[in-house]
Design goal:
Radius of gyration: 21 Å
Distance between the termini: 18 Å
Helix content: over 70%
Number of helices: 16
Number of strands: 0
Order of helices and strands: HHHHHHHHHHHHHHHH
Amino acid sequence: MLKQLVSFLRNPFLFGMSFLFLIPFITWFWTDDKSMWMHFVRIKLPLFLFPIAFAGNWQLSARQWSLVAYIFLILVFAGCCWSLWQYVQNIHSIHEQYLKAKVFPTPLENDHVRFSLMVCIAVVCSVLLMMEYIPKTKWLLVAGLCIFFIVYLHVLSARTGLVSLYIFLLLTVLYLLLKLRKTKWVISLLVLIIAMPVAAWFFFPTFQNRIHYNVYDLSNARENKYVPGGNDANRILSLKAGWNVLREHPFGVGADVVDKTYEWYDKNIPAMVETDKLSPSSEPLMYAGFAGWIGFFSFFVIMLLPFFQRIKTNYFSWFVLNLIMAFSLLFDIGIEVQFGVFIYAFIVLWWWKWLGISRGNEPATS
C-alpha cells in the first residue's frame, strides 16, 4: 500500500486528478454552507480514490483491456437502443419537444449531456480497437457499431456529444495529413464531415429542430434577453454570474459559489424563475468560485497534465480522449454530478492503463 501511495504522489497526472477533489475539500475553512461543502466533497470523492487505486503496480493484459473495451461498447450500444426505443414510441411529440430545448430520454437518469459524451467516446474507442487490437474478422462488427454511434449522436443532437465527435474527426484529418500523409483519406474524411450534418438536416427531424431552437435561443442571448425555459441563453447568463463571483471574490467563496451565483441572478435578473437558475456552466468558473484565481488557473494546469503523460500505444487516441474531456468541462459542470465524475475519472484512468502497455504486453512504467 505504501508503494502504491508513493507511486501516486510521484505521478503529476494522478495527483493532479486528485487535486480536483482537494481544491473544494480545503475550502471548508472559508465556506459558510457546510452542507453544500459536504455535497461537493461527496460527489468528487472518486477523483481522489480512483487515481490512488490505479497507481498500483498492477496491469491487465492487452487482451483483457480489449475485453473491457468490448463491454463498454456493448453497454453504450444497449443504452442507445433503449433510448431510440423511447424515441420511436413518441416520435411526433418528441419532434415538438426539440423546439423547446428538450431531447428524447437517455440512460444515466436522462442525463443526455453525459450520455452523449459517452457515445462519442465509444466512437473513439471503436476506432482505436480497429486500429490496434482486433483481428480482421471482428473489424466489420466494430466498424458497424462505430457508424451506429455516429448516427445516434446526430439523431439525439445533444451538443456536447456532437461537437466532441466533430473535434475528433477534425483531429483525425490533421493526423492523417501531417503524420501519415494520407491525402486520399483526408479528402474522403473531409467530404464525410461536410456530408454528415447536411444529411442529418434532411433525414433527422430532431437534428433540424434542434438547430432551429439553438438559433432562436442564441438570438435571445445576443440581445441579453431572458426567456423562461431557455437553454443556451441561460447558460451564458450563468457564465456571466460565475465571472462576476470571481471578480468580486478573487480568493473564492468555497462551496458558497452556488449561493453567490443565485444572488447575482436575484440582483440582475429578478424575473428569473428558480428552475432557470444554474450554477456557472463551466468547471473553470466553478473552481474559480471555490478558490478564486488560484482555483481557476489550477484547473487548466490539471487539464494539461495528461497530454505530457508517456503513452506507449496510440498517443493520438489518448490525446483525443483528454481533449474531448477537457472541452466537455469547459462549457459544462460534468464533475459536479456523480455520473460525470465517474465517466471522467474511470475512462481516463482506464485508458491510461490500457494505452500504457505496448502490444508486447509489458507492464506500464509511466
